[in-house]
């Protein structure tokens, strides 16, 4: 009976401790004055290091202009945003180890990932396509049997190809620049990623006209900002920032800056995507 009682008490202590551990992010930010985000160095226009060695991008602006004010309100003091590089294989470990507080890059919100992290409201919606050399016979996912297809390690695109299109020869690379370099050198026949990222990569390529982005979306890719699971107060602050941005229109101003006609990568928002975003806040 004593051993059973001890086991019950141990379990009770563990359960009681779990919510407290899950509420540490705002306290951590309050004590340090820093919100640390994991983001990308080579995924224009979402997050990348520009020619002036500055870390810039759409995802970073969303944090700086929309999320940070709400986190400052929650912790009751001004804070600064620090950035650390994260890639598909490293971003969840960085969260789990408390090295970063928020992943703000190009991370797709999936049911599988929700088992280990929480996601904010969706801030961008796209789908997977292919980048190929102009004139390539690959025009869609139906043309990849036996072809060498580059993807990023840990990405949803790699998972889908592995599970649904095993006839393709999947080649995984640690990041987008490495995968594109393999395509440039002819080591692979195509590079698959979310369509918007491929358009961004093409725009930054030495010879943009040498490359085509092809195929209908073969996956749905709603991007969210990831955080440690169960941290309800921190999630509420992050979501409040995005919600306020959507309601006030500031989100769309930031979108226009990066994706409008004069933006880094012209990519007009469709009415369907706008409706998808606004539905999250009951509009």
Overview of this protein structure:
- This protein has 283 residues and is α/β, with parallel strands linked by helices.
- It folds into 2 domains: 2-125 and 223-279, Periplasmic binding protein-like II (D-Maltodextrin-Binding Protein, domain 2); 128-219, D-Maltodextrin-Binding Protein, domain 2 (3-Layer(aba) Sandwich), CATH 3.40.190.
- It contains 10 helices and 15 strands.
- It has helices spanning 2-22, 24-32, 58-75, 91-96, 156-164, 176-184, 195-204, 232-248, 250-259, 271-279; strands at residues 34-39, 42-43, 47-49, 55-56, 80-85, 102-103, 117-119, 124-126, 128-133, 148-152, 169-173, 190-194, 211-214, 221-223, 226-228.
- Strands 11-10-12-9-13 form a 5-stranded mixed β-sheet, sandwiched between helices. A 3-stranded parallel β-sheet has the order 5-1-6.
- The radius of gyration is 21 Å and the shape is globular.
- The model is unreliable at 4-23 (pLDDT under 50).
